[in-house]
Write a structure and sequence with these properties.
11 helices; 5-stranded antiparallel sheet; 2 domains; alpha/beta; 17 strands; Immunoglobulin-like; Rossmann fold; about 350 residues; globular; about 25% helix; 8-stranded mixed sheet
């Protein structure tokens, strides 16, 4: 087996693949984010060996990102299956399963992943409101502090995924242990009906931004403004919660959006097949056209410089700044996914939380 090699101008991926039931592999294609350029079809470099394996090679133009995730689409007898790269030991968990990973020589994991981290305890509850089904919540709190102790609060869309795939509560514990952030609570919201709720649903926004957050901050004593965050559609939902007229009855003061799905007709025609595309574009356009903000927020945004959402994120950051919000926008050398969002938590989220709290 051969691990991918990062060369001066390309990334070389070579694989030796067995066939099935005596039938050799007849094609291999790279399953890769379409935002990266380059051919996807592997070239056959060796006919089937005695063990039935065929060798394939692809030289992908070296991308401008520091890491990328992929799978192999392998065709045998016209039937295609998607597999990990058998020669690459580096993998990552994603919402759609494991993927192989290529790391560039300059890539480094965040230091907080191995730093001391404060322990936390978890409490399960639900947010009842205008949605047909309640929003399940898991509230992470620093160990040893009762619910009656007033603490800042971070409300997270796709919370369980952010925790499992981006290490969010470990990050929060590390920032607390290092004294970079005060002790705080993290509300991990489960996306029961993600596409419907996070795409500008009025019922969902009323449930969270209205009485929901007010009840939550009474159940768990809160000081300082609540910060709402999310990635992709969750980033859109976080921004809409923050901008909602109810605004958590004045409790929301900050928004953190990563690779937000701020779809517009101009930039995102490729998303037109999404069931809630029209509702998203209407909600986004209302934000883009909004006059001066009556309740300015502190907003931090990150986005992969090469991902499809980069154009609509730049547009949104500029519009929010024009409206009078305090906006910081940072592009990172990665694409759309939880590891990219994990790697961008510090310093972007750290600075936002420190300024709000």
């Amino acid at each position: 087996m051969t691990a991918p090699r990062v060369l001066a101008e390309s990334v070389r991926i070579e694989v030796a693949l067995p066939g099935t039931d005596g039938v050799a592999v007849d094609a291999v294609r790279l399953d890769l984010d379409p935002a990266l350029s380059g051919r996807r079809d592997f070239a056959l470099v060796a006919a089937p060996a005695a063990d039935g394996r065929t060798r394939w090679r692809l030289d992908l133009p070296r991308p401008s990102v520091q890491r990328f995730e992929y799978r192999l689409a392998v065709s045998v007898g016209g039937a295609e299956r998607t597999v990990l790269d058998p020669g690459n030991p580096v993998t990552v968990d994603t919402p759609s399963g494991q993927r192989s990973v290529v790391l560039m020589p300059s890539y480094a994991v965040p230091g907080w992943l191995t730093a001391p981290s404060s322990e936390g305890v978890r409490t399960r509850t639900r947010l009842h409101g205008a949605t047909i089904r309640p929003v399940p919540l898991t509230v992470w709190s620093p160990a040893g502090l009762p619910d009656t102790e007033p603490l800042p609060m971070l409300f997270v869309h796709d919370g369980p995924e952010y925790d499992a795939l981006a290490g969010l509560t470990r990050y929060c514990g590390a920032m607390i242990a290092a004294g970079r952030l005060p002790p705080h609570r993290v509300v991990l919201a489960t996306p029961v009906r993600r596409n419907a709720w996070y795409s500008g649903s009025r019922a969902y926004l009323r449930s969270v931004a209205g009485a929901g957050l007010s009840r939550l901050t009474r159940r768990f004593a809160t000081r300082g403004p609540v910060v709402v965050m999310g990635g992709s559609l969750g980033g859109l939902a976080a921004l809409l919660v923050g901008l909602h007229p109810a605004g958590g009855n004045g409790t929301v003061g900050g928004v953190f959006a990563q690779s937000g799905s701020f779809f517009s007709v101009r930039h995102d025609g490729q998303e037109a097949g999404f069931a809630h595309f029209g509702r998203v574009t209407r909600a986004v356009q209302q934000v883009l056209d909004a006059p001066r903000a009556g309740r300015p927020l502190r907003i931090a945004m990150t986005c992969g410089a090469s991902e499809e959402n980069a154009a609509n994120n730049r547009q949104m950051a500029a519009a929010l700044s024009r409206a009078g919000h305090t906006v910081t926008y940072r592009e990172v050398p990665d694409l759309h996914g939880y590891t990219a969002w994990r790697d961008a938590l510090d310093p972007a989220l750290t600075a936002l939380l420190a300024s709000c709290w």
